[in-house]
Amino acid sequence: MEDNELLRVYKKVYDYLNNCNIYEVRNLARAFGVNAPTTDKKKDLILRLIRIGAGISDPGPRSNKGARVKASDASEERVAAVRSLIVDCNEALTYGGSEQPPAEYRFRDAESGAEEFGYGDECATGILEVGKQGHGYLRGYSFMAEEGDAIVSDKLIHQYRLREGDVISAYIVQNGSAAEAVQVAAVNGGAPVFIERKKFDDLPAVYPSERYALGRKDCAFLRAADIVCPLCKGQRGLVFAPSNAGRTIFFREAARSISLAYPKSKLIFVSLDQRPEELTETAGLFPDAAVVAASFEDSPVRAMQAARLALEYAKRIAESGGDAVLLLDSLTALVRVVAYGTVPSGRETAGGIDLAALGAAKKYFAAARKLKGAGSLTMLAAALTGRGVASDADVCEELGGAANMFVRFSREIAARGVIPAIDFSCSYTKWCENFQSERERRCAEALKEMARGRFGAEHIGELFSKTETNEEFIEREELWASARRG
Hints:
This protein is an alpha/beta fold. The protein is 39% helix and 19% strand. The strands form four sheets. Strands 8, 11, 12, 13, 14, 15, 16, 17 and 18 form a nine-stranded mixed beta sheet that branches. It has a five-stranded antiparallel beta sheet with strand order 5-4-3-6-7. Strands 1-2 form a two-stranded antiparallel sheet.
């Protein structure tokens, strides 16, 4: 786009920046990733900022020579104002013929060739894990530690105010046999803007009230769950499931529904203690999720590191205003993994679980919440039952106190061929009066009463086949009211 056309299209942005003094423009330019902002005249610098901010051009690779890039002192309000004006100008454009709108300002990962965060042929992208010594590593989206992961120095972490779980793009140089990050190009999909960020642990939690509508026409059990035990953003859902009752199907279909209806929500699936042959299958079952899959051959320390990093990644999404959904299979395996990296307390449950390990797993699960003034972290976690193991009962009892949604599976229902074998008679969500109408709550009670019958699970499936949507089902009170009387 020529300069004259750029000035015409982005006149609002240009006028706003032109009213700032040169020092303010330079700080804003640094915030948007403009290289060497002090070398240009004011007008040229504004044009460069607009091109980069609108995604028309890349910032261009930085030289490894000379001083480190100076941090931006631009205020959060000014940066947000410029971004908002750019969005307004983009939305005002009309495109005809083969013209395409300006691409979203994203970066390209040179190694994979896929559009990711970062730019240039020498960029690497990963999720930051911070070690006890203060330096960090760029991990892949498996969250597992791998040989060759780039090192991020503690100086770089402090310079850019990076946090564990941040998605980082950085310029990499080979330092002997190790790859080392020397310059941060992007943080969480945008230029490394040096402004105060909200902190997950400092944000107050509120009751979940914004629902994830999981029900689809082709999935009767999720439609029933939407009414009986609805899932909201920030929910801590505990799934009590014996083996071979369909918990993986439940997780898979719930993830599919969320990815279809809520594409902006980030899905993470954490599966621990798997059989080696199941690892490849797991990634295929959750194509829209970042997958942590650890087999029983992996060291417990490595598995716990990956699970912890996945949680930190979800926290960074939530504190920045996004929505993350973490599916955990299972809490039972997590307790075993945590036990290897936790200093024993010397006290054990009746089932032989150290209380320190149980407390660490509970803290992991309790991280899910709806944040006031930010986003949400939702967690659905399985707890294994029906194995006759005393430790399973300890996990269910201790972690059940942290949950606010309960989904119970039944081996008896599974034996009748109903998969997933959800027992709706004893599945529920706490405080559903905050987001359910009175009619919907009566419908939920009717379905629970029906589920207590001998073939209740089968009848519920037949009942939902008579309507297209849950809204229609709830309105047709004669359907579920007669079922309740029957």
